[in-house]
Amino acid sequence: MRGSSHLAIGLITGVAVAGLVPGVPFSPFGIALAGFSSLAPDLDHPDSRLSKRLGFAQNYVRWAFAIGAGCIAAYTYFMLAPGREQRMSYTAALAFALIGLGMQGGSARKLALLFTGASTAVLGLYFGFLWLSLLGAFVALAPFTAHRSWTHTLWATALWTYTGYLANQSLGWHGVAQFAGAGYASHLVADSLTKQGVRWFFPFADISLKVPLISTGSASGNLLEVGICIGYGLLILGLVVGRMHF
């Protein structure tokens, strides 16, 4: 399913949580969090909507390798005497330069996400926010997993929800766990409507659960996605309005 459809379903799910779950206040932040969470499972795909947004630093990663290669080369030239050690150092500089040049698209984006996630995890450890460290670890590691594997499981949904729970306990933002967990789960449910399906219980069960309605990427599939989003939105709108007391 396309990222725009996942985002729409996640935002509608956020409205459902805000309007239908007892004790959870209506919150634009919570709805936005549900939308963000609905995109999180696809961090395992370098071309996903969220990967592109969080991987904004990919060009800087390439420059970092180029600068690193230049620094190693300069150190080698000025500080090392001719010989075996110098040759090895020049080889390292060349390797850095080649890696930087070879990074295109997905590979650079993966490293950018790794650095972004790792930095977030370190900040969480520094300030004593376990939820921030878990979030950073997820962002750092998800791009290096196979698509629709670890991030598209019941266990990942539980971890994401638990991260929201810790954020709620730490920051006092009531309803974070509900918005985060529901938004994340909405992605898996939506992908279960595609022909590929989702392995909810991977790696313990390698069976894809699916209702194969949508052919991802096809014109008919895209049209059906729009219809599902509209129908889901109207359903939630009706339920929320029905609970209001005028």
Automatic annotation (TrEMBL):
<protein>
    <recommendedName>
        <fullName>Metal-dependent hydrolase</fullName>
    </recommendedName>
</protein>
<dbReference type="Pfam" id="PF04307">
    <property type="entry name" value="YdjM"/>
</dbReference>
<keyword id="KW-0472">Membrane</keyword>
<feature type="transmembrane region" description="Helical">
    <location>
        <begin position="90"/>
        <end position="107"/>
    </location>
</feature>
<feature type="transmembrane region" description="Helical">
    <location>
        <begin position="223"/>
        <end position="242"/>
    </location>
</feature>
<feature type="transmembrane region" description="Helical">
    <location>
        <begin position="60"/>
        <end position="78"/>
    </location>
</feature>
<feature type="transmembrane region" description="Helical">
    <location>
        <begin position="113"/>
        <end position="141"/>
    </location>
</feature>
<keyword id="KW-1133">Transmembrane helix</keyword>
<feature type="transmembrane region" description="Helical">
    <location>
        <begin position="7"/>
        <end position="40"/>
    </location>
</feature>
<dbReference type="InterPro" id="IPR007404">
    <property type="entry name" value="YdjM-like"/>
</dbReference>
<keyword id="KW-0812">Transmembrane</keyword>
